Amino acid sequence: MAGKVPATVVTGFLGAGKTTLIRHMLQNAEGKRIALIINEFGDLGVDGDILKGCGIETCTEDDVMELSNGCICCTVADDFIPTMEKLLDRDTPPDHIVIETSGLALPQPLVRAFNWPGISTRVTVDGVVTVVDGRAVTDGQFAHSVAAVDAQRKLDENLDHETPLSELFEDQVACADMIVVNKADLLDTAEADGLVARLKDEARGGVQVVKASMGALPVSVLLGQGVGAEADLDARHEVHHHHHDDDHAHHEGDHHDDDHHHDHDHHHHHAHEHGHDEFESFIVTRSEIADPAAFAEQVADVIRAHGILRLKGFAAVANKPMRLTLQAVGPRVDTYFDRPLGSDPRETRLVVIGEAGLDRAAITAALVA
Ligand SMILES: Nc1nc2c(ncn2[C@@H]2O[C@H](COP(=O)(O)OP(=O)(O)OP(=O)(O)O)[C@@H](O)[C@H]2O)c(=O)[nH]1
């Protein structure tokens, strides 16, 4: 994957909190240059305006690109690929690309588009993040305003209007590498934990499910999953069959011309900012390790036992002059030797990131063992 620009796909129903999450991410980008592509479908460019007008210094208008309209699979060649190429051809290409999908466009066709010649050697899908309205899903509704979602669906004649929302939801869950149970502030602990457990069960193995309020997640948790989802589409099955056939491939999208509005409250972004109190990180230092493979297994066990989201750092390996880099996303642990240790101390330093309440003592003990 070296050399490819990573792209994160953010999906989720209308009102789940995608825009809120992305806004928070741009405001807390930790120095990463993030470009944003928005595929607003049947929407009037509201999200784009919100994000362009966000006043975030690191995010200029140029960093926000909108796909004209219509469904990704219809417009891939005319719109999505050229937009991506424009971003990649810049003198200083972005460190990371984030794509906000319209709530009803399934993520699978977008992920598939990354296999197109022209971009497949230059970008990769770092991960698919599915944002879920925790309150609505707990209430069995999938979206806070089912009427608004239905109205959005009707704006697009290409969409089949019959598929129950529950199936679209299943598709979004099936494609996810990370599921964000958003609006945790509207859930009590038992509800939140219950939904997390249920989604872990429904999702593919190894998918991370995290709680958030106002989409406040550290960039270090959201980005850098390193999945390469475009190579792994078969695992992300579409439960139902998507709306249209090939002769719609160049649909004009003229149904967007008139003044369709839907009633979700884009303009009511709350003024208060949430911090990252729900997440924590700490560093574990230990002596050199004996064997990279065995240590990777040890780390994977600790991650599983304690629900750690990310773990990364460097290790010194007995009798090796090179430094070992270790990166784990959930229990997937990657290691490689990156450079000579030189005069660095022969020790191992690991950063552990997870939801608040990690048992630091037990984790530390297990990692230094
Ligand atoms: N209480 C609460 N409200 C939230 C949270 N996250 C988002 N909201 C509100 O929910 C509404 C919808 O949020 P958006 O971020 O616009 O949702 P979206 O998924 O981008 O929706 P579309 O762009 O319309 O598809 C806004 O009014 C947000 O302020 C949350 O964690 N808790």
UniProtKB/TrEMBL annotation:
Entry's Gene Ontology molecular function annotations: hydrolase activity; nucleotide binding
Superkingdom, natural source: Bacteria
Keywords assigned: Chaperone, Hydrolase, Nucleotide-binding
Catalysis performed (reactions): GTP + H2O = GDP + phosphate + H(+)
Family per similarity comment: Belongs to the SIMIBI class G3E GTPase family. ZNG1 subfamily.
Function: Zinc chaperone that directly transfers zinc cofactor to target proteins, thereby activating them. Zinc is transferred from the CXCC motif in the GTPase domain to the zinc binding site in target proteins in a process requiring GTP hydrolysis.
Keyword Nucleotide-binding found: yes
Domain CobW C-terminal: 279-369
InterPro entries: CobW (IPR012824), CobW-likC_sf (IPR036627), CobW-like_C (IPR011629), CobW/HypB/UreG_nucleotide-bd (IPR003495), P-loop_NTPase (IPR027417), Zinc-reg_GTPase_activator (IPR051316)
Composition-biased stretches (Basic residues): 263-273
Species of provenance: Thalassobacter stenotrophicus
CDD domains, per the entry: CobW-like
Keyword Ribonucleoprotein applies: no
Pfam families: cobW (PF02492), CobW_C (PF07683)
Gene Ontology biological process terms from the UniProt entry: cobalamin biosynthetic process
Annotated spans, Disordered: 239-277
Extent of Basic and acidic residues compositional bias: 244-262
Protein name: Putative metal chaperone YciC
